[in-house]
Amino acid sequence: MEKYIVLLCLLHSCYGVIYNLNATEYDRMPAKYQGDSYDKCHWDEDAVYCIAELRLVSDTPSPLLTMIQEYSAHNTTHFDYTRVVRGVCLTQTCKHYYNGTAASTNDTERGVAIGACVNESLSKDYGLKVNVIRYFCNQPPKEKPLDTLDYAMAVVCLVIILANIAGTIYEPFHGKRKDFLSRFLVCFSIRNNWRKLMSPVGRGQDPRMRRLKSIHGIRTMSIALVIMSHSIIACVAYIDNPIYFESLYKTPSLKVIFNGMTIMQTFLIMSGFLLVYNSLLHAEKNQITLMTFPKYIILRWLRLTPPYAIILGLTITWMRYLTDGPLWQEVIGNEVFDCRKYWWTNLLYINNYFDDSQCMQHTWYIATDTQLYCMGALVFVLCSTPRSRKIVLPLLFIAGLIIPAVITYMRNLDGTLIVSPEAIHGIFLNEATFNYTYRRGHTNLAGYTIGLSIGYLIYHWQKKGVDMTRFRRYRLGVPLLVVLGTAVVYTASIFFEDVPRHSLFIRVIFSSLHKPIFGLIIGLGLITFIFKIDDIVRNLLEWQGWTVPSRISYSAYLVHVAFIRHFVSYQTTTWHATFVLIQQMTVGFVLASFLTALPFFLIVEAPFGNLVKLLLMGSPREKEGDNKENGKESPPKKMLSDSEIVAIEKIVPLKTLREILSDGPKYENSRV
Length: 672
Known about the structure:
Keywords: Membrane, Signal, Transmembrane, Transmembrane helix
GO molecular function, one term: acyltransferase activity, transferring groups other than amino-acyl groups
Number of strands: 4
Strand order of the largest sheet: 1-3-2-4
Domain Acyltransferase: 213-599
Number of helices: 29
InterPro entries: Acyl_transf_3_dom, O2_lipid_transport_reg
Strand content: under 5%
Oligomer: single chain
Region (Disordered): 621-641
């Protein structure tokens, strides 16, 4: 037995991975991030400051380099210390190696000077040398010239602002007029859009829509968690104590955060559910034909694109002038370049299939959701019978299980997206798992199919009057769903443990089942909230305070990464990460995103949403006016409390109840 133990120990030592270092050994390594003072460098008018990524090498066998390589080999929770980042002021620190000036553009000369300058210090202190991998240099901040796109975007923004001013002034005096110009201006009335934003959930809608109030709570909490998880990008940029960040991976309470990328399945499930549920309600008064499908797609594109295009346009143009720092080119400049090259992929919602683009990377979800929405709309239109749905939906779900498993097997990927320090540092640009199984539309098929199926189930249970109150005896199990969902997310932490990489079999199984299992838990939770089986969690999610942040969540999602990128690009020196500072940063990004999203919603998203309804669906006021001209008064809206609605539902069919309470549903295909 002792022989086997010794053999295992020898095999483990030969594996060439060091999982932990004590403080003394860790301090022997060169710093991961280090740099000269950016501000002092630019006191000189001809200053040249460069950020360089360098590979540590040695001309002779080096125990120190071997230790660095073995410690860096555990790349799931460790930084790659064989690649160091240095900020170098060529015209001051390295002036004996560099004879150029800010006006000189000889990149080869700069690269040689950087390597020689860094080699001097590393050779003396550590006995190591470096090879220059890449670098980018900037000069003292100066006024950047405006181009045609800058002027064009300024004109677009000016027109939108003037339309808002005109609509806001016009609406109180002439807002009830029925001509097109009046209705057009009212679309841009900030007062009118504010009233809609603050209106109670479900007012004037089908009473069944009021059962969806919990979605606002789910959406708000989820988007806040997404912004917080993206804030990690700022936490690893240019820190002087990366070992502290590595230690966070071992903190049990934070493992859920590092594994929290699964939370995006929540949005896909809600999107699929709302697509089917709202469409079934709409079908009660409207015929569904093949021509319905292109209408769905056009309506969605028109609703999502205006605010998206405005943020994209600002990213390409004016946002590049907001900050200047040593990391500007890597964090802002590359995104601007890619957005000017790949903007069309974003507006066609196919950017999640272009892996070499940094243009608004977080919008992969919008592209994925749109692609799955098109698939779901096609299924809804073509599968008009229960029999066809019972065949198609299970097949789609099975395909959703098989596709990521096959891709994981063929490409030898990880079982889940591993939020490693180096992946965060590189903004996941070259992460194979992120590109091939995380953000593709076809690899998220299972979760969306769960949402579609739940939409059909809930609608038909409500229509048949299925008594769900008998399940209230199990209401204490609903809070356990929250615990179970958290536990499912937590299971991904197996890929962060201090062990060799898991077998391909485990990774394939995990890739296939992890997201669908989490999706089933979310779907079951939606059912319990809509049918009011639970009171504890449902009351929390139905709190009226979630409504406004939920309605502006799309705008918040669009703008939040801009704050993170500009924060990173503005850093002029390394910073010392602490738990308090990280908390302040993440909460600050969430608050900044929602505070910015509020005026953006009122000025851009809501007006263009109103305009789409005006152009494609007509105006409710116009229809009301037509009724009066024909001698018919529009039926008054009657508002009842939820308890009154539940009581009436027991004796009045839901379809009749809808006709009594509402003058017709007003639907949006992916929002409540």
